[in-house]
Amino acid sequence: MAVFICPRCAHRVAGAERAEGHQPRGCPSCGFGFVFELMDDYYAGPLTALVCCDRDRRVLVAGHATTTLTGWAEGDLIGREVAEALGLSFPGSPDDPIARAIEWGVRVLAEPCAFRPLGLDADREAVADIFPAYDDDGGLLIALTPATKG
């Protein structure tokens, strides 16, 4: 069964719940206009930034914890290419995991990465989970979680 996650507040809804009655297509928790379909459930941590992009990797929504983690306000990110906007890089990967998720329609999980927070001169380490969209519009959801030292 499909699971849907709101990129704004990270509220999750099971596919069966969305089919009951006359529920709106958006988030029943915060009222945001759409939810993102996942194949499996995903729990975004309190510091996990959720960013939705179109098929051309342009930011559509910079929601849950994005400003807290990156320092960027949503309005400063919308319309920009996601890797460029966030200074996102994948130094240990032989290819571009974002392109792989879009081209092959596969999830890319626990991909080590780095990003550049607003106003800092140094990158921060993180882990990216990348989910392709399963609708005709394409696109993806990137969940960016700060790396923990341990």
CATH architecture of the domain at 44-146: 2-Layer Sandwich
Number of DSSP helices?
Answer: 5
Order of helices and strands: EEHEEEHHHHEEE
CATH topology label of the domain at 44-146: Beta-Lactamase
- Beta-strand content bin: 25-35%
Quantity of strands, as a count? 8
> Mind telling me the C-alpha Rg?
15 Å
Pick out the low-confidence regions: none
CATH superfamily of the domain at 44-146: PAS domain
Percentage of residues in helical conformation: 10-25%
The main β sheet shows up as:
5 strands, antiparallel
- Report the span from N to C terminus: 35 Å
**Shape verdict:** globular
What does the average pLDDT come to? 89
Structure description:
- The protein is built from five helices and eight strands, in the order E-E-H-E-E-E-H-H-H-H-E-E-E.
- By secondary structure, the chain is of the alpha+beta class.
- The chain has a domain at 44-146: PAS domain (Beta-Lactamase, 2-Layer Sandwich).
- The strands form two sheets. A five-stranded antiparallel β-sheet has the order 5-4-8-7-6.
- The model has no long low-confidence stretch (mean pLDDT 89).
